Model the fold of this input.
Amino acid sequence: MSVSESSLLPKTLRQHYLSLPQGKKCQVTYVWIDGSGEGLRNKTRTLEEEPKGVADIPEWNFDGSSTDQAEGSNSDMFLIPVCMFRDPFTLDPNKLVMCEVLKYNRKPAETNHRHKCNQVMERVKDEHPWFGMEQEYTLLGINGHPYGWPENGFPGPQGPYYCGVGSNCAYGRDIVECHYKACLYAGVKICGTNAEVMPSQWEFQVGPSEGIDMGDHLWMARFLLHRVCEDFGVVASLDPKPMKGNWNGAGCHTNVSTEAMRGEGGLQHIEDAIEKLSKRHKEHIFVYDPRGGEDNQRRLTGKHETSSIEEFSAGVANRGSSIRIPRQVGQDKCGYFEDRRPAANCDPYAVTGAIARTCFLDETENDEEA
Done:
């Protein structure tokens, strides 16, 4: 099995040092999105005491020329703490903090979609928008081959793996369960997990989260996933189509609901939102992966439980449509809708921000400017 060398280091020895007392001092790990728009970086500093909230964590900086976010001649970037979590790796009182990135002039970095998303969420806060995002991912060996697959071949065809159990169906469950517990400890709003249709592919769900919290919590859940996988020596890939051929891709289905949608007669508000989305299909596809739709081009083929990237569609209980209305919502006449177009490697700030602008602010400008 292709695992990293560092995962083979003796973990019992490591635990001795992690259990040493640290007095009143606190380790805070700053986490941020790099210049790729999908990669995460982190570094740690010592504070004299445990912060009570994010306001107690100071701004910091980093070398943006090493993260594809600045030139070497003017490389300092600012880290602005925005959301604090408990650290499940070094334990209390230590913290993880999600950060926004600002350039030298204190304007948002190009991949800082949180800044604009937060402005949008402030404008729509009276709608009480809830989001839930279903993060699919694929476990790979460090050789890039799906974890648990035959070294020189393929497993049996799709069918028994979705929500499957047994060594011949579930590849890497230890990682999934450790990640789940890490999220719960950290305070991430994780609400579930399951094995997906392709073997070695899994999903976790975050939400419901109101407004900007959705992006903060999903990004931190991704960071925790990568860190857990680091300990096990494997890789968590968010590639929307990691394997060519007759295999499912990986998405980040986004569930959306407002107070009006959740109330009596909410189905009409859901249908109104879907109608608005139908008029801006191309604009949303542009922001639903980090490469302006190029990644989703490989995934949204109209096959393997996806809609076509070229056409907008909607339907009740239809997993081959752009927007799905769950059957229970159709029966209850209220609830939420699911946008199935976002890719696994999407930026949740960009996705939720675009949905809020289209559905709740009736904006029609091109999202390429967003």
